[in-house]
Amino acid sequence: MSVAPAGTALAGGTDGPRALRSFLDTVLDALTTGAQDRSGPLPPGGPDAVARAVRDTCLPLLPEHGTGPHAALRTLVHTLAAGAADPADPHCAAHLHCPPLAVATAADLAAGALNPSMDSWDQAPAASELETLTSRELAALVYPRATDPDALITTGGTESNQLGILLAREATHSPRTTGPLQIVCGANAHHSIHRAAWLLGLPEPVTLPTPDGTLDPATVHTCLAALTGRTGGTSRTGPVLLTATAGTTDSGAIDPLPALADLADHHGARFHIDASYGGPLLFSDTHRTALTGLARAHTVTLDLHKLGWQPVAAGLLAVPGPATLTPLGHQADYLNADDDTEAGLPDLLGRSLRTTRRPDILKIAVTLKALGRQGLGDLIDRTLAAARTLADLIDAHPRYELHSRPTLTTVLFRPTDADDTTLAAIRRSLLSEGHAVLGRATTPTGLWLKATLLNPHTQPGDLTTLLKLVEGHTPR
Q: Domain range for residue 412?
């Protein structure tokens, strides 16, 4: 019996777990030592120092003769961990970049080992059924009164928004329609709305001002009236898609969803809501009312790798019924031949514009089953409470200015009287020293430091220390 060369054992089959087990200690030890060497939310020294460390430890990456699996794992995993931005550190608070739950990460290991490909049933028998059940369960949170809600699994908000706009284009296309779909969005909308219009060959979106961070219904009414010609203004024959945001990237603001849904109905416009950030509030009994009106959208974007604590990627596009997804139907004989589908083999190709897809549903399903809605709701409540605590600390501090009370988990603040140049320098100093990772947001009142809290275990002391770090870099 021949013995496979070191590092060539497979992860699947009955022998796969044994092969994996021999590597787990090496990986976990390297993660531990890498985090210890980093000793903070970000490696110090900036891009040049990190690049130099990676080159010094990892090159050559394609040697003539390999180092063996344990040495390769130890070296590269340690290097990656030592040079990582660690979202589990409470001072890593710049982006919608969450610390994943350990249970979800463990499930992702199983997904990688089994490697189902979600483009045909015969590559993913159980995974395809698990995706069907889980996506419908999540869609029912968005559309509780719908008879048969559904959701597509995506790589995140960008893909979900693109799909939502594509479905709107197809749903509104008819022989009587002479103009292209016109998107209307706020200046607060995610950049993927504009990129989707470009990608789909649609006109540049009409972008309405959001000086207070959210869409103003009166401004939206005037715009839709002019586009649709229902109450005067410039008449046009093309369809209109109104997009709203439930959790903006800059401040976490939520557009007035019920009023916007009324306007979309009144003017005969399609309605899409990007709830990538705020959507998981549906898990919380305390905060779900902030999403009133969500179920009136034709399509809704959700991300569980933000306020859902999943490893990237874990996005969804929810719809009230499967008929909405009909335009995505596609046939490739080697994947979903008509006679196979008629014989009862599920057709997965119309579930995505991608062909090969990872079984990202596994980690989501494990998390839902492990914690339940109440458990996830508790994590939501704790994280939003931490943001309110940070806002209270800023409000009470004589040398800080708070932009506004947080809607979700994003807090905008700045040292009093600091100009934009000073703020940018403070942020970059904290990054280069590896002490804190804060974002930046530009509003009509200038530049602000942005703290996006996604760690549900953050304590008030962590937040106090974060403010002291900023204060220590603020010129007096």
A: 372-472
